[in-house]
Amino acid sequence: PPQPTIVASVLPADFAELGSQLLELEKAGVDRVQWDVMDGCFVPNLTFGPDVIAATRGLVDLGFEAHLMVADPDPMLPRWVEAGCGIVIVHAEACPHLHRTLGRIKELGARTGVALNPATPLAAVEHVLDLVDLLLVMTVNPGFGGQRYLASMESKIAAARGLIDGRGLDIELEVDGGIARDTIGAAARAGATVFCAGSALFTGPGTMADRVATLRAGAT
Ligand code: DX5
């Protein structure tokens, strides 16, 4: 089985110490950082823009993925890549022209991601999988960290795993929301191989490295 990828969501980080928090995440052994970009319109919360991401780009070697929880991602697509994000994830629900948007992300030289909110069927990406590098199945309703994992998403995770493997596609299957030591095993058994965690990394027993190791062990 593939080694699990542990992605740290910076949403619960101490924003007054963002740089040192990223250094701590790198030292703790996370594989990637997810920037939860929120516009206060697509989700009822507002976080950070490309300048904040760019300010930290030179501090760590970790890969950055921008999770765009925004109502209209097209106008600012280049900004996330310029800020240092190697993966740009858009929400299917926010892209009336998803095929074109994914093509534009590829033209910018980044890898593409599509996120699906809990109510959104897998069918929303069925006809653009040739343009998708990462599929993000939300296991909470986006907007805030610290919410409860939705086990009802496991059927969608399993269906996504079946679709990806069935067609022999090289697409990362990521889950995000409420991923912790007591939920990551079920998400992994359902077929996820990339796990985005916020609260479970920034809070809990032991050191940050302990918590990364606990999640990694729970996913295998
Ligand atoms: C939801 C956010 C959260 C965050 C992780 O909009 O995307 O899922 O990444 O938060 P936790 O791991 O605390 O649920």
From TrEMBL:
Cofactor binding note: Binds 1 divalent metal cation per subunit.
Residues at the active site: 36 (proton acceptor), 176 (proton donor)
Keywords attached to this entry: Carbohydrate metabolism, Cobalt, Isomerase, Manganese, Metal-binding, Zinc
Keyword Nucleotide-binding: no
Alphabetized InterPro entries for the sequence: Aldolase_TIM, Ribul_P_3_epim, Ribul_P_3_epim-like, RibuloseP-bd_barrel
Reactions mediated catalytically: D-ribulose 5-phosphate = D-xylulose 5-phosphate
Cross-referenced PANTHER family: RIBULOSE-5-PHOSPHATE-3-EPIMERASE
Family according to the record: Belongs to the ribulose-phosphate 3-epimerase family.
NCBIfam families in UniProt: PRK05581.1-4, rpe
Cited function: Catalyzes the reversible epimerization of D-ribulose 5-phosphate to D-xylulose 5-phosphate.
Protein name: Ribulose-phosphate 3-epimerase
